[in-house]
Amino acid sequence: MNIWEALFITPLTTALLFFYDILGENLGLAIIVLTVVLRIVLYPMSVPALRSMKIQRDIKPELDRLKNKYKGDRQKLAVAQMELFKQKGVNPFAGCLPQILQLIILIALYTVFMSNLKNGELNHQFLLWDLSARDPYFVFPVLAAVSQFVLSKMMLPVVSQEHEAAHQAKDKKEDFASAFQRQNLFLFPVLTLVLGFQFPAGLMLYWFISTLLQIPQQWLVMRSRPAKSSG
User: Fold this and answer.
1) What are phi and psi of 9, to 5 degrees?
2) Residue 180 has pLDDT above 60, yes or no
3) Do the beta carbons of residue 119 and residue 113 sit within 8 Å?
4) Distance (Å, rounded) from C-alpha 28 to C-alpha 123?
5) Looking at residue 166, what is its pLDDT?
6) In whole angstroms, what is the distance from residue 217 CA to residue 51 CA?
7) Quick check: 55 and 90 in contact, CB under 8 A?
8) Mean pLDDT over the full length of the chain
9) Residue 152 in contact with residue 188, Cβ under 8 Å?
């Protein structure tokens, strides 16, 4: 057994089979319960990342002022932005670990579904779906994509129409960070949808429930008091 199997494949398979046994050999319910457990385990690591992203959203007007002040001088702009991040307690790398862990879990679960669970001993049927095969109704891929869209939209800065119009009038070219953020609003849901058509329904059930659970978690952090403006 290699490290990858020892750290991820075996524990996930064991946990999934445990829930499968105690839930009346219902693989769908086992996936849902396992997803809830994983979200609870990952939540403490996700909070710092969510708070950091919230602060970045709250200080967008200040970042816009810096972009106008140092327009044409990227080096000074970068220094000023890092100084502002330092003052506000923003860690640009705070979201790396949770995202990496989620990706690792997704890949591990894909391996579990494609290899370990494809046998005749398990009941793969859940409502209308064979969880070991692709979703023929495209329900889980669509639900996962919609949930991903909602989650992505929650992270967009809340800016008044007047402020947005004034900012765009001063700078017709949208900065790379803002453009990238807005593109991600549609990129991740579309990517989820495309991959969802190829993945087993069981994996897309996990993806949907996991994303759905992140929405209230993210909402709790995003509704907290905004960062105080330094200007």
Assistant:
1) -60, -50
2) no
3) no
4) 10
5) 42
6) 11
7) yes
8) 81
9) yes
Summarize pLDDT for 8-60 with one digit per residue, the tens: 999 999 999 999 999 999 999 999 999 999 999 988 888 877 777 777 777 88
pLDDT for the residue numbered 147:
94
DSSP line for the chain: --HHIIIIIHHHHHHHHHHHHHTTS-HHHHHHHHHHHHHHHHHHHHHHHHHHHHHHHHTHHHHHHHHHHTTT-HHHHHHHHHHHHHHHT--TTTTHHHHHHHHHHHHHHHHIIIIIT-STTS--EETTEETTSB-TT-HHHHHHHHHHHHHHHHTS----HHHHHHHHHH-SSPPHHHHHHHHHHHHHHHHHHHHHTTSBHHHHHHHHHHHHHHHHHHHHHHTSPPPPP--
pTM above 0.70, yes or no: yes
**Number of neighbouring beta carbons within 10 Å of residue 92:** 12
Q: Domain ranges in the chain? A: 3-222
Residue 181 buriedness (CB in 10 A; 0-12 / 13-18 / 19+): middle
Q: What is the pLDDT of residues 144-155, one digit of tens each?
A: 999 999 988 877
Question: How far apart are the C-alpha atoms of 207 and 153, rounded to whole Å?
Answer: 18
